[in-house]
Amino acid sequence: MKKPISKPILSIKVKLPRGRLIAGAAAALLLAGGFFWSGQPEGFSTQPLAVVSAMAGSNQTESLQQRVQALAAQYDAKPIDAHNDRVWKGIPGLNGIKIDVDATVRKTEKVNDGRIQLVAEQIPPKVSLDDLGPVPIYRGNAEKKQMALMINVAWGTEYIEEILKTLDEYGVKATFFLDGSWTADNPAVAKEIVARGHEVGNHAYTHPDMSKLNAGSQQSQISRTNQAIQKATGVTPKLFGPPSGAYNDTTVKTAYGQKMRTILWTLDTIDWKKPPASDISNRVLSRAENGALVLMHPTAPTRDALRTILQGLQKKGYGLVTVSQLLDPVRPLPTP
After folding, report:
1. Are 126 and 81 in contact (CB under 8 A)?
2. Which helix (H) or strand (E) holds 83?
3. pLDDT recorded at residue 336
4. Which end of the chain has fewer CB atoms < 10 Å from its terminal CB, N or C?
5. Which fold has domain 134-327?
6. Whose CA is closest to 266, among 299, 225, 294?
7. pLDDT at 67
8. If 0-12 CB within 10 Å is exposed, 13-18 middle and 19+ buried, where does residue 239 land?
């Protein structure tokens, strides 16, 4: 019994042998995809057809546009006003961001390194930290995936160089709050801290309990320390860290009168008690959170714990910045 023969889609007047028909069909399929088989006759181009190349480019651009639009839907955020929290006191505001889709597509195509180059507008909040007046600050904005290391220095120099080397190794900048009398005794070390790109703050002159001093004495403690730091480093601090965290309203107002913010901390390593290095690193890594200010001192266990802390926080995705950067309202752009 003969097998039924399917009718061709197109009528062909010239009857071809079966083998040629199959070869012709295969060639037609390859042509439709824009390529020829490797055994094509001499003189045929090996490149995709022009119309196919143009369509591919169009699809790539359209795909990039769609990807950026999806990222914009994910990352666009409204600004957050600074406010005075009942527990945490002054909470910095945070800019909103609006991804510029067209500009992002243009920049991504221009750079052409395989990564999306986000371009965004920063939208400032209506209420800034400055609008809150003289308030103490214990943390940054909880929507900012950053943390800051604040290192209070009032005694010794033996561990500072090793701490600086470790910070350099991980590309981290910290904020060192310097005691005024320590700075007067160790101007070269204070200058080296600044030369390595770190921020310096004021830690009073003789490590007093600021809450027990009158307004004049508090003024003197802050201004004398600023003078010592400025003389040693050429920098006038904008941040004041009261020794032992002891302060009152007069302290905050006195610092504010000298254009300085009063800074406390979110997370205390309690390293001044010199616990094992593992206790310090575990305390920091287990309590890490957005906007945290981490209090440290230049002690032997802190030196030994620092590498583990930096590795752990960076692995968790935290940006490690100075205190001023943490308080800044600029919202970091995500990395797609």
Report:
1. yes
2. strand 83-85
3. 76
4. N
5. TIM Barrel (3.20.20)
6. 294
7. 93
8. buried
Task: Collect all residues with Cβ–Cβ distance below 8 Å to 243 and sequence separation of at least 6.
Answer: 152, 154, 179, 203, 204, 207, 208, 209, 210
Q: Give the three-state DSSP class for 76.
A: coil
Rounded average pLDDT per 10-residue block, the chain, 336 residues: 40 41 40 37 31 37 87 96 97 98 95 94 97 98 97 97 98 98 98 98 98 98 98 98 98 98 98 97 98 98 98 97 98 85
Entry pTM: 0.80
Sequence spans of domains, the chain: 55-123, 134-327
Q: Could you give the CA distance from residue 162 to residue 44 in angstroms, rounded to a whole number?
A: 68
Q: Of 269, 261, 289, give the one whose Cα is nearest residue 92.
A: 261
Contact yes or no for 1/9 (Cβ under 8 A): no
pLDDT of 103? 96
Residue where the block lists tokens 């620092």: 306
Asked whether the beta carbons of 154 and 182 are under 8 A apart, the reply is: yes
For position 335, what pLDDT does the model report? 78
For residue 49, the tally of other CB atoms under 10 A from its CB is: 15
pLDDT at 292: 98
* Residue 3 pLDDT: 43
Alpha helices in the chain (DSSP H): 18-32, 50-75, 101-111, 160-169, 180-185, 187-195, 215-233, 249-257, 277-287, 300-315, 323-327
User: For residue 49, what pLDDT is reported?
Assistant: 26
- What would the DSSP string read from start to end of 17-52? -HHHHHHHHHHHHHHHTT---TTPPTT---SPPHHH
How far is it, in rounded angstroms, from Cα 334 to Cα 316? 14
- Which amino acid is located at 74 in the chain? Q
